Amino acid sequence: MSEKEKDSGARFIDLNVESKLRDKKIEKDTGAHYVDLHVGAKLREKRREKGVSQDELAKAVDLTFQQVQKYEKGLNRISCSKLHDFARYLKTDIRYFFQGLGDVFYPFAENTSYSLGEVDFDFNKEDINAEIVELVKAFKSIKDPKIRYNILNLVKSLAWH
């Protein structure tokens, strides 16, 4: 691991150890639940995307910047009301923070409409083929939210080619 990576505060988990931790749903170094880590990472991502500092975000939702840091690292769990405040200030749908977890997408209804932020799409049962089902099952079996997030971004980028 480079010095830059050490200084960034990034945590790297040995993939062999990760499978053991997955069942406990905790992160090796912090004891944080994987959902808290995911939501914190999404908060950081959206804050940076909007060009907002931790201090500015903290003041907007009546926190200290240290608390925002803890939320972003997954060290402290974000309450529903605080997550709502973050979503409003960052002008994003609250569901954004949970995208990539994989447990909320059930595409097998007869006719279903979904809205994921700015992307709306409709599909019906005939649109679901074996390849799509296989892709969804494989994707759902990936337990690490960071890996799912990276795969999702890869697929999105390939879809535009």
Automatic annotation (TrEMBL):
CDD domains: HTH_XRE (cd00093). It comes from the Bacteria. GO terms for molecular function: DNA binding. Signal peptide: none annotated. PROSITE patterns: HTH_CROC1. It holds the Pfam family HTH_3. Residues 43-97 form the HTH cro/C1-type domain. This is Transcriptional regulator XRE family. It comes from Midichloria mitochondrii (strain IricVA).
